[in-house]
Amino acid sequence: MSEQVNRQKREIAETYFGYSGIDIEHFTDMVEGPRDRTVVHIPARSGSTRIENKNIRELSGLPLIAYTIAVARAMPVDRVIVNTDSREIADIAEKLGAEVPFLRPAELSADDVSPGFALFYAERFLLSEGYPLDATIEMYPTSPFRNAAKMARYVDALSRAGYCATAFLPNMELERVRARDGVLLSPEEIRCERGNVNFKLLAGFLGMKLLSSQMRWFHYALIDDPVELVDIDTPEDFALAEYITANNLYDFGVAL
Fold first, then answer.
1. pTM, rounded to two decimals
2. 3-state SS class at 186
């Protein structure tokens, strides 16, 4: 971790939680009893340069964030939390069944602030209130196409491995990708260390235990459904998502 990141995290801890350190162990020690809860964390700040109000813009009659919340609520987790700086987004999220336990400070919601600091803030907020948080799962609203059954499998992988993330292999056929020891990797899931294969992480599912010591291995779930690769960043991406949803070309596995 770079010194700059350390400094920024220290500033967040001092400003909002009255603690000068950044180590997560300090916060976990504040929780009495076992920490065994898993929380879905949905970051949804206001402001979007390419698509105005992107996170709550209607996609086939529903706010974009509704798709992520609906699938998250069907997952075997303890809480579904939306992390936003917007009262409007918060009200919509709560009507859709998610929790909004805080409004993110404006300083942590600017374009040039790493999304990782939003998660850092949320974790410390929950722990500072004594919530027995053990693992978080980040799910970005801009990746709306997720299947509830697949998400449940990923939650199980997270509980076993301590880390699970969706990923894809750009410009490669899955059957041609091999680990260092020459063993053919599964087309759906990979159990390997970082760097074994050439892939990119997706915003669909990123789950990890709070403490790195609890990460037994890095579990990567490979996405081979092209619809699940849609990540809405431009008006063209949004138009594609509208076409898919309007024509019922994807099975979310849950009522929307």
1. 0.84
2. coil
